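name: query_chain
kind: protein
chains: 1
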Amino acid sequence: MILMVSGRTDIIKFYTPWFIKRLEEGFIDVRNPINLKLVSRIFLKDVNLIVFCTKDPRPIVPFLKNIKIPFLFQVTLTAYQNDIEINVRDKSSIIASIKEISKIIGKENLFLRYDPILLNDKYDVNYHIKAFRRINELLNGYVYRYIISFIDIYKNVIFHKNELKLKEISKANMKEICEVFSMIAKDYNSEVSACAESDELLNYGLIKGNCISLKDAYRLTGSLDFKKQNIRKSVNCSCLKTVDIGVYNSCLNKCLYCYANFKEEDINNNYLNHDINSSMLIGHLNNDDIIKIRKD
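structure:
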């Protein structure tokens, strides 16, 4: 089993003490987001690999050397300011944390996500190119793999359309961004791949890759017994299947493009309903919950 921590919310930034406590107690309960009475219980002894997905890894850095399960990091670092990424702290301090993690786990276990790429009057193609070059310059020798994607029109994006003021991303825009990003990466001995995008982007210099590949999973765990994502082919995702322990509408980063926050009024309420001593991230087990042991 591969544990995703987390695509649904930034557990590392906002809930690290809870996660460390769950590691110590040996199990995590995850409420099904569709069938709310159904709870999956995950025993950490059944977890082969952890994927930490965060915009701010600093809170977990002091605990990394004590985590016995193999893990890798995907850190999202863009050049957006607080008009887009409302509660993301200063990027220079995040870069310092990325460097620290790279020293601890090695750059082969650290992916940097520059995504999603959106365009408007402020954040145009030239802005992204300058920003990506600067990030490569600052993280030269600390990061090898970069993952990019272009914005998808989620419910939250539509809700914030007046703030985002999006411009259409044309094929010419995509071509220029991919080609220049690829050239920048080569200048700094790194590589760029795309996440859930058309293979057409490979013609523009990108490397075909996976966010979570069998090669990386085998390298870290010694096992080949992992399944691919059960996802529609149109998304073009060939990553390995993961189990996400997060909760939607609970991330206080409040990025305007986020797919996992789609009901603004629930975000603060969910955060207030977090209890470090609970077996689940938000709320508690109820007497009538149906608990099922999850093995994969």
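note: The two ends are 5 Å apart (CA to CA).
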